[in-house]
Amino acid sequence: MLATRVFSLVGKRAISTSVCVRAHESVVKSEDFSLPAYMDRRDHPLPEVAHVKHLSASQKALKEKEKASWSSLSMDEKVESLCFLLHKCGFGEKWLNVAEEGAADLCACKWLSSLPPVYRIKFKESFAEMNRGSNEWKTVVGGAMFFIGFTALVIMWQKHYVYGPLPQSFDKEWVAKQTKRMLDMKVNPIQGLASKWDYEKNEWKK
Amino acid sequence: MAHAAQVGLQDATSPIMEELITFHDHALMIIFLICFLVLYALFLTLTTKLTNTNISDAQEMETVWTILPAIILVLIALPSLRILYMTDEVNDPSLTIKSIGHQWYWTYEYTDYGGLIFNSYMLPPLFLEPGDLRLLDVDNRVVLPIEAPIRMMITSQDVLHSWAVPTLGLKTDAIPGRLNQTTFTATRPGVYYGQCSEICGANHSFMPIVLELIPLKIFEMGPVLTL
């Protein structure tokens, strides 16, 4: 259980597909690539096949009821049918007839828990479910920072054990004399070094 | 010369270099604009909520994004070619210096009005005085007058080298068996540094070029031409 939650920090197929799948509950193992497949995709709203191929008894009964006049459906079933179909196609609550108050409660932002069986026969996940974010970014950022830190350790080791001393010309006095010489030579006097020096006051320009 | 960690171009010491700096600013601005546009388009692509991926038949847009880059390229090419031809203008040089690359030093020949030939070696670290420029200072500099067109004939005695002085906008390959020519006119007196710009062996980084540009009156007095 804990392992599964840990694996949700990883991408959906990063390590062991089956474990990551159990954490994310969205990735499907495919069987035969030549047959039309079901897929939850943002840019493919109505997949070629329904999610559930083999209906159970209660599901079959529900489907029969749907075939008959919809006025025989209860308010809940009717509203749910319309709502979630429109929601699946991306229209959301806007198309809901607000007069049906019961419907308003049902549709208001609680798609995940309230999606009824008829929906789930046709579709595996709602748009909200399939578009949800994950915690993968934390793993990525954390991993990157860890390796950057490790690189810093490597560089510290190199500076201590591998590199020789810096040349004399890096000494403070040498750099000072060198800078004075560059200013005397008027190196880059238009926009560069000498342009930043005030020759009258003998100091850097403010 | 450049200061430590300098990324941009050095200030110009010749009119051609001034032109090159302006051209560089022009081209870089175009580059920044295009990059910004592309990054913006990428950002929009990554953050859109739209989901239609089957867009086709956009002939007007395709025409625009073909013609517009062509125009941009012309706007870059015209100043570029202008400067290119400017460098080849006939300007009747007052002085001709020969510069011969060796492994790993330069030989300079002033043979117009006499016979001055000398070698120019980098100062080894142990020979440096505090304040000297490590890897840049040489024992014998190339002394030249300002505000006079000067012709440099550049060749090599062994392998490929390249004679470069960034502040004058100069870089010319030194090729054995070939004489390359470049001309320049310096506008300011001073000491200008460059480094060999074609890989030539172990000490390729240790054969710099140093020009000392002095007023013509002083040059004519003959500090250079008398050995």
How would you describe what is shown here?
Helix content of chain A is 48%, strand content 2%. With 206 residues, chain A is mainly α. Chain A has a two-stranded antiparallel sheet with strand order 1-2. In chain A, α4 (75-88) packs across α5. Chain A starts with a helix and ends with a strand. In chain B, the strands form 3 sheets. A 5-stranded mixed sheet of chain B has the order 3-2-1-5-8, with no helix packed on it. A 3-stranded mixed sheet of chain B has the order 4-10-9. In chain B, strands 6-7 form a two-stranded antiparallel sheet. Chain A binds chain B through residues 42-43, 45, 167-169, 173-174, 177-178, 180-182, 185-193, and chain B through 1, 3, 6, 10-12, 51-53, 125, 128, 130-134, 188, 190-191.
The count of strands of chain A amounts to: 2
- Head-to-tail CA distance between termini of chain B: 28 Å
The CATH topology of the largest domain in chain B is given as Immunoglobulin-like
Largest sheet of chain A: 2 strands, antiparallel
Our estimate of the beta-strand percent of chain A is: under 5%
Strand content of chain B: 25-35%
* Terminus-to-terminus distance of chain A: 64 Å
Query: Which bin fits the share of residues in helices of chain B?
Result: 25-40%
For the largest sheet of chain A, list the strands in their spatial order: 1-2
Apparent shape of chain B: elongated
Estimate the mean pLDDT confidence of chain B. Answer: 94
Order of helices and strands of chain B: HHEEEEEEEEEEH
Spatial extent as radius of gyration of chain B: 24 Å
Number of strands of chain B: 10
The most extensive interface between chains reads: A-B, 22 and 19 residues
Low-confidence stretches of chain A: 92-112
Biggest sheet strand line-up of chain B: 3-2-1-5-8
List SSEs of chain A in N-to-C order: HHHHHHHHHHEE
